[in-house]
Hints:
heterodimer; A: CATH 2.40.50.140; B: 318 residues; alpha+beta; Tetrahydropterin Synthase, Chain A; 8 helices
Amino acid sequence: MIGGDIGAxxxxxxxxxxxxxxxxxxxxxxxxxxxxxxxxxxxxxWALPDLPVAAQLGAFGLWSGVAVLIGRRxxxxxxxxxxxxxxxxxxxxMIGQIATVTTPIRGGEGRARIGDGEWPARGPDAEVxxxxxxxxxxxxxxxxxxxxx
Amino acid sequence: xxxxxxxxxxxxxxxxxxSSIKIVRQGYQYTIEHFGRYTTTAAPGFNFYPAFxxxxxxxxxxxxxxxxxxGQEIITKDNAMIxxxxxxxxxxxxxxxxxYEVSDLYVALLNLVTTNLRTVMGAMDLDETLSxxxxxxxxxLNVVDHATTPWGVKITRVEIKxxxxxxxxxxxxxxxxxxxxxxxxxxxxAEGSRASEILRAEGQKQARxxxAEGRRESAYRxxxxxxxxxxxxxxxxLVVSEAIAAGGTQAINYFVAQKxxxxxxxxxxxxxxKTILFPVEATQLIGTLGGIGELAKEALASxxxxxxxxxxxxxxxx
Lengths: 149, 318
């Protein structure tokens, strides 16, 4: 069964390559870890020719787990930075922009125009047309601060 | 036996790892539940949450999205029935709130906007609904913002796509517009004809004035000419009368004879020379000629000093 013409190391190597190729077609960063584990298992099978199949499978499973854990730690310690980390984070993007008051801010509550839409606003009292900077966004409410010249 | 267990164990490990790795695509955020309770949100990228303990709860789309508001009939403030439809743009700002605070976000938003659209447009006149789309959007946003804040969703804009008043009102609008334009055209025409009439009258007035001025001028000149003629006549008469005073009857005779001869000459040259009326005796004429002859004699016989002074001719008695 396992063994055949090319022997266990060859089979594991082939499995690793197949997994690596499958990784290219299947979305998700999972199969590459299995490919790494298969590669390690192939090395083991080559180093220990009389390793039983069950042990080989066990080694494969173990190395898979290890590979995933190492990968996770690697990603955590050396995260791949996005060139635009604030993508899809509208609130974060708006901080620092200038808003124009459309409903006078009284008692800290009003509305302001940002871009082509109006947002609920909180901040110092201001008349319609006043221009304030967005200091922070809380839910769907923007917190405004006076322009610091 | 051992091999089967080993294979099953391997499968379990593989599946476990597979379901523990959560790859989140950009544009989405996954809520992670720990035994059914929300704990954290998985950001785009590679995430590892051990299976059995953690599950993906909801996959929240963080991109700006569009919902079509189906067409609906709205009765405006002035009781016109209009059918309208629109679109809503919204974006999730807070994934867990959008996932758990509201049961079905899309349905909730759709119904919220649909009902408020009815409210806002129902408070406006037909003309306002047709012309004040910006205001409709602003008012709608103002209302729905309060509702969507707890859901962590911001409706960025509401656009009315189409407002269709009923056919008969559209026809009436078209008629109104046509009437307006016709009215303007008529007014312009009337103004034009009025202006042209005024201009024409002005022209006529100007012409009459000029004509009268011309007449006045010519009358002045005529009267001046008559005055001059009268003056000349008077002078001539004066000279003649002076001559007569100096020269006596012979001088008058001279003048009369001159005229007589002229008149006879005219008779001779006149085209109807067949009949010549002589109202006076020819002898008289001859007599005048005789008078002239005598005058000539006297003139020739007189001294050169006297001849040098015309108008002071002395006629000796015979």
